[in-house]
Amino acid sequence: MTIVTKNSLGEIWAEEGNNYTCFADLKGKHGVYIFRNKNGQVLYVGEARKQDLKTRVKQNFSENDSGGTFRKNYMSEKSVNFDDFKEEMTSADLIFIVSEKSDMLIRALESLLILALKPKYNKDT
Predict the structure, then answer these.
(1) Given this model, what pLDDT does residue 86 score?
(2) Triad 107, 111, 113: Cα angle to 5°
(3) For the whole prediction, is pTM greater than 0.85?
(4) Which of 79, 74, 75, 119 shows the shortest CA–CA distance to 95?
(5) Residue 10: its pLDDT value, please?
(6) What is the pLDDT of residue 13?
(7) Which DSSP state fits 123?
(8) Which tens digits make up the pLDDT trace of 21-59?
(9) What DSSP element (H or E) covers 24?
(10) DSSP code of 104?
(11) CATH of domain 2-117
């Protein structure tokens, strides 16, 4: 497993055309991702098994993408719009744990991290 950290998410929206080049090294890779605020509080833990990490995570940065679970939970809980979400996320970090593409391993890792870290925006459905 490899751990990759992306700091200062404000660069995502600063990119012309939103090509998400800051996630280019995650294309074709699978694993778990962790959103953490500027104070180090874990906000959300997610997994990328069927989609690669780049595709899965960028769903949270597109206002109209239906796959942005963290974005939807965050905006709903805080009663904020997408612009407010973007503003609040500019100082957040993303931590990626890249692993082999094993559904069982990725699901287990995500579950363990949710149990241990108790992220605020992971909700049972």
Answers:
(1) 87
(2) 120
(3) yes
(4) 119
(5) 75
(6) 67
(7) -
(8) 888 899 999 999 999 998 999 999 999 999 999 999 888
(9) none
(10) H
(11) 3.40.1440
Query: Cα-Cα-Cα-Cα dihedral of 89, 121, 5, 30, to 10°?
Result: -120
CA dist., res. 67 & res. 63, Å (int): 10
For residue 115, is pLDDT > 90?
Answer: yes
Burial 97-118 (b: 16+ CB within 10 A, else e): bbbeeeeebbeebbeebbeebe
Tell me the three-class secondary structure of 32-77, residue by residue.
EEEEECCCCCEEEEEEECCCCHHHHHHHHHCCCCCCCHHHHHHHHH
Question: What is the total residue count of the chain?
Answer: 125
Q: Which residues contact 25 (CB under 8 A, 6 or more apart)?
A: 4
Does the pLDDT of residue 101 top 90, yes or no? no
56-75 residues labelled b (16+ CB within 10 A) or e (exposed): bbbbbbeeeeeebbbbbbbb
